[in-house]
Design brief:
Length: 149
């Protein structure tokens, strides 16, 4: 795993356009990788994907083949999403900020927060979906009640 991570980080570092745009150094990417490991991002991502797939399933016709949802889950590139998250941390936070986050996630309180992140992600996905469905319903009602131009 570590050689693969080193290869990925090296590839990102030598990419001129990426490095120039985001000022990412191998050190920042290594810190970001450490945060993503400590903060339970992989489990949070998996929980979010499962929640979104369940919500998607409920919005599709009942006769939608199960293979569609199986293929959907397989087509979601979780490793790319995690890589994108690492890059986001590296481009948003300073090294000092990331070191502080690492210190937090290594503390007992930080470990408790990280352990609960997957449940928070599922709850947020559910709440977001409910809010989105309400907004869509309201928007459709507004569209139907407004006179045509």
């Amino acid at each position: 795993m570590k050689p693969l991570l080193a290869l990925i980080l090296a590839g990102l570092w030598v990419s001129p356009s990426y490095a120039a745009l985001n000022n990412l150094t191998p050190e920042k990417l290594a810190l970001a990788q450490q945060i993503v490991t400590l903060d339970n991002s992989k489990k949070m991502l998996q929980a979010t994907i499962q929640s979104v797939i369940q919500q998607t399933r409920s919005s599709f016709p009942p006769d939608t083949p199960e293979s569609f949802f199986t293929n959907l889950e397989q087509n979601i590139d979780q490793e790319k999403m995690l890589s994108d998250l690492i890059q986001a941390y590296g481009s948003i936070y300073s090294e000092q900020d990331m070191k502080a986050l690492i210190g937090f996630y290594q503390s007992p309180g930080g470990q408790q927060v990280a352990a609960k992140y997957p449940a928070v992600a599922v709850k947020l996905a559910d709440l977001s979906s409910d809010s989105l469905h309400e907004a869509i319903h309201k928007t459709l009602q507004q569209l139907q009640s407004s006179p045509a131009p």
